[in-house]
Amino acid sequence: MPALKKAALAVTSAALLSAFVVTPASAADGDDDAPKPPATMSQIGGAQLGRSGTQVNLGPGAPVLPKKLTGRSWMVSDAETGEVLAAHNAHWRLPPASTLKMLFADTLLADPALLPKTREYTVKDEDLAGMGEGSSLVGIKEDLSYTVHDLWLGVFLRSGNDAVHVLSSMYGGVPKTVQAMQDRAVELQAIDTHVVSPDGYDAPEQVSSAYDLSLFARDGLQNADFREYCSTAEAQFPGEKKKGKKRETFGIQNTNRLLTGADGVDAYKGIAGVKNGYTTHAGNTFTGVAEQGGKVLLVTVMHPDDDETHAVYKEAARLLDWGFAATGKVTPVGELVAPKSAVTGNGTDTEGAGKGAEADKAQGEHGPDKAARAAAATDGSGGVGIALGIVGGVLVLLAGGVFLVNRRWPLPDLMRRRPRP
């Protein structure tokens, strides 16, 4: 074959391969009745993440993506480097359900002195007002006292909207909490997110994205208390108090089935949380983090089809399997950006210092509203914690055999310690 013809054939083959590995069809793409992503989306984290459809750049020896992926939006990223390995409609703004509680925790846990874990609070009737009909509850009762530690267990394990509302009351009320959460989202450059309720319950215009939920998880995992709560499989929660008797407790189990292995879902090797959610409008949502072989990956799945039982967990597990097998064999399609304070010189990310202007430009074009953009221009709060802890290896959850991986931002050093009881 002449050299020129060989070269032309090589170019054609390369072009076809590039087209295939960048945007292979997702199962959800073939459903004509399913909602379609917007034509233009935010480009925070990279231009490829702003495209609709599946984005992946396969290299030599890389495994193909799992075939059965129906989520309207999903993303797999490296929790340490921030590299996004693959994504599908990463910036599509969708209802987040209780995965928004990660942002709630990011916001309130940022200042442990404000709500110390040992502080006790007696619940009032008004603290439990305003919850959506059919809200998930941990079982908090008015006129009984709970510690902040108890309430956080209720938030993370049972996704209790009652625990969220009590903590919001302690923080200064629901409106103040919602505004603080929005400010935190802006600080994290999570511009797809618009907060209306602190618990993630369906509300008009309340949205987030797979990209933003991954940012929230990565931010929360810098905090030791966040790590402890999101990786707790089961705990005892305060119950009734009868005069002259010791207060009763009852057991609660984490609703994250990849963590507990409940309801016919296999526990995922190396899983360490983070948060699941469900509402009628949002469908099932899930963000998880897992460590295998020294690699720590984040996965987010939003609104998969309900044809398969527990689809959100099974698709998340498939994507994690793929991510661990594909690490080092794919070219990233983008990155999880550092918080604004880190890229503007108030944090520790010196490598990302040149990205602030690009992020601000993207925020101006795609930000959720004018007020959020104004807050972004002036906000210097928040920042980055210094340690990321992930449960590593095979978890013996109910036996308490849990280990944590601690890393500094941007997470270069590895050491292990046992979690607090």
Descriptive account of the structure:
This protein is an alpha+beta fold. The protein is 30% helix and 18% strand. It contains twelve helices and 16 strands. The termini are far apart. Mean pLDDT is 80; it is low at 1-25 and 346-421.
In short:
The chain has 421 residues and is an alpha+beta fold.
Which helices and strands occur, and which strands form pairs?
Elements: H1 3-22, E1 54-55, E2 57-58, E3 73-78, E4 83-88, H2 101-108, E5 120-122, E6 145-147, H3 148-158, H4 161-171, H5 174-187, H6 210-220, H7 224-230, E7 234-238, E8 249-253, H8 257-260, E9 271-279, E10 283-292, E11 295-302, H9 311-326, E12 330-331, E13 334-335, H10 340-343, H11 356-366, H12 370-378, E14 388-391, E15 404-407, E16 415-417
Helix pairs in contact: 2-5, 2-6, 3-4, 5-12
